[in-house]
Amino acid sequence: MQISLKFQNNENNQPLKTVGLILMVGLLLYISLYLWQQRTVLLPTINYASTNQMNKEIQTGKAPEGITRVDNPKVQGEQRHVHFGNKAALNENGTWKHGQTQLTNKQIEWLMKHGWRVPHE
Questions:
Q1: Among candidates 99, 108, 78, which has minimal Cα distance to 116?
Q2: Per-domain residue ranges for the chain?
Q3: Dihedral sign, CA of 96, 101, 104, 107?
Q4: What is the SS3 assignment for 92?
Q5: Residue 12 dihedral angles phi and psi, to the nearest 5°
Q6: Alpha-carbon gap, residue 103 to 36, rounded angstroms
Q7: What is the DSSP letter of 81?
Q8: Taking 80 as the threshold, does the pLDDT of residue 71 lie above it?
């Protein structure tokens, strides 16, 4: 049994373009699958901690300086929020509940690690 592949080289180069397109799509698919497998390396670990877990970290000194407590919502429409030493409070979605403060890099990292958004400054 003999198998032969014949690529035409006419004016349009249509068969050659089709083969090239198929190879390109295959390569992109291979790269996408590889990156999907490596996502644990490429994406940061997010730990969606409860309010109690976050407050425990604050109490034991594992949270960055300046963060005083995390509160659950008390009324309809309110979000979980974190309080800072200057009486400012940040909602879980990254909007300020009241007041405002300049977040340190350590505070930003800690909040994001726990699944919170931070304001764009």
A1: 108
A2: 1-43, 51-113
A3: negative
A4: coil
A5: -75, -25
A6: 32
A7: E
A8: yes
